[in-house]
Specification:
By secondary structure, the protein is α/β, with parallel strands linked by helices. 36% of the residues lie in helices and 18% in strands. The protein contains twelve helices and 13 strands. The strands form two sheets. The chain has a seven-stranded parallel β-sheet, sandwiched between helices. The two termini are 21 Å apart.
């Protein structure tokens, strides 16, 4: 049985963590996964897996470098592969140490088609893109757009994010409970799920809300997620005098329940690798209004409409005229539905670097 070291996960649960969790749970009987992190992994998602924690580089660069080098010197020989999950290329230290200490398979996995980091890290990402990608043996991406952005003209393999569609299907019972808990019984609920970051662009919908309320006076915008932009989003809601029509509910475990409570799903991301919450929303039978920046690989139903972020009037019209439908058609031929194909493909990629299906 091969042993894989997983890096790049946050202490908060988001799209990258969800994508990795699905793959790990699918392959855990064939592959031993262990984790190298900067803090405890999200509780309830990776429980029981061996985890090594080192100091974050931004907090103490010296302690970080000592701990990282010491880890690979002592533990590196135990691993057949390192699987680095990336939202930027600003820190490839683990890749270089993995190569130095003999980990033969070194996988970079891109989860975005834009840099999710401040500008100094963006500059580092561009530099590293030019000089250090050769240290990797395998380049993966969640979509073609993410692969092109991270790797340019280098060859890469698209690994679509896994989704458990049955677990995300509509629940009338959960809809009733959540709407009752948040005083939404008679509301038209416009919902989104994702980290509160500039990338996810929740501010865009907040700024549309005054105009939406003129057409749909019972509209409420529900934001599921936490992140560094949350305080600013709350200030914007207050400044626009729409606090009574916004619910910031934070990060939630029961995504199925919150999706079921929505009447329409909005996804105004500025950039996106392969939005897991969008796939989940389609599984939940929601009408979805999404930005024109979304890769077509994520559009697996007839319930999605792409709208240019520059066309605010169309966003307002599409949102106000959306409603749930029991007749949304999901593309059952999609690879997202076939766990056997995914299992064989991923196992081959971890072991051999190629898929023979």
């Amino acid at each position: 049985m091969i042993r894989v070291l997983v890096t790049g996960l946050s202490t908060n649960y988001g799209g990258t963590e969800s994508a990795v969790e699905q793959i790990v749970h699918l392959l855990h009987q064939d592959i031993i996964f262990e984790f190298l992190t900067y803090g405890p992994l999200p509780q309830g998602h990776f429980d029981g897996y061996k985890t090594f924690i080192i100091p974050p580089k931004r907090v103490n660069p010296i302690k970080y470098k000592i701990a990282l080098k010491d880890f690979f010197r002592k533990e590196g020989c135990r691993y057949d592969a390192i699987w680095m999950n990336l939202n930027s290329l600003s820190n490839l230290d683990s890749l270089r140490y993995a190569k130095k200490y003999g980990i033969k398979k070194r996988i970079l996995h891109a989860h975005n088609d834009g840099w999710l980091c401040p500008w100094p890290q963006k500059i580092l990402s561009e530099i590293h893109k030019g000089f250090f990608l050769g240290d990797a043996t395998d380049l993966w991406a969640c979509s073609k757009s993410a692969g092109r952005f991270f790797y340019g003209k280098n060859n890469y393999t698209v690994i679509p994010n896994l989704i458990n569609f049955k677990k995300m299907s509509f629940s009338a019972e959960k809809r009733f409970v959540i709407r009752q808990n948040h005083s939404l019984n008679n509301s038209f609920v416009i919902g989104t799920v994702g980290r509160c970051t500039v990338q996810k662009n929740q501010q865009f919908i907040l700024e549309l809300m005054p105009s939406i309320l003129l057409k749909q006076s019972n509209a409420v915008y529900v934001v599921v997620g936490d992140g560094n932009e949350l305080p600013e989003l709350k200030k914007i809601a207050k400044r626009l005098y729409i606090e009574d029509h916004v619910r910031f509910v934070g990060a939630q475990e029961d995504i199925q329940g919150y999706l079921s409570s929505f009447d329409v799903f909005v996804f105004p991301s500025i950039f996106e690798g392969l939005g897991i919450s969008l796939l989940e929303a389609q599984a939940n039978n929601l009408s979805c209004i999404v930005s024109d920046r979304i890769d077509d690989i994520a559009l697996i139903s007839n319930s999605v409409v792409k709208v240019d972020l520059g066309n605010k009037e169309q966003w307002i019209e599409m949102i106000c005229h959306s409603k749930r439908s029991a007749h949304n058609h999901l593309d059952q031929r999609s690879i997202f539905f076939d766990s056997d194909i995914q299992n064989n493909m991923l196992k081959d990629l971890f072991v051999k670097g190629t898929y023979h299906g």
